[in-house]
Specification:
The protein is mostly helical.
Length: about 140
Amino acid sequence: MSTLVVICESGTSRQVRLDPIAATAVHTYVKDWRPNTAQNGPPFDTEAGKSFSYPGFQNYLARLGDRFEAAGVERWMAHRCRHYWATSAHRSGMSIIDISAEGGWKDSEMVRRYTHDRPFEELQAMPTPFSAMLRKRASA
């Protein structure tokens, strides 16, 4: 598992995990496509080789949204990626505390707003807390 340091809207930084596929893609971009800047700088630079400003990155994402719309993806918003990530993390078994830390939220209430409930059919396929406890005791 690789990590990437990200700078938040607040100006603070944190490490985020990247799966091997994403880490390889970022590494390839930095090595082969990024403008010639310091290798230890931010992974994504402007064409001039400078760090994105917050409004500059918003502009980039708006243009990306325009391209998605031209390709038939309606109402794409970068912020929805956070909802999707949080919901997927929750469904994969990550705790609310871990999602909050990795997503950069200080309040677990925000995680609850971002994650969506599991469909009942998905819950039916999972072990109940009681059966999970019995399996754990039997394997001990």
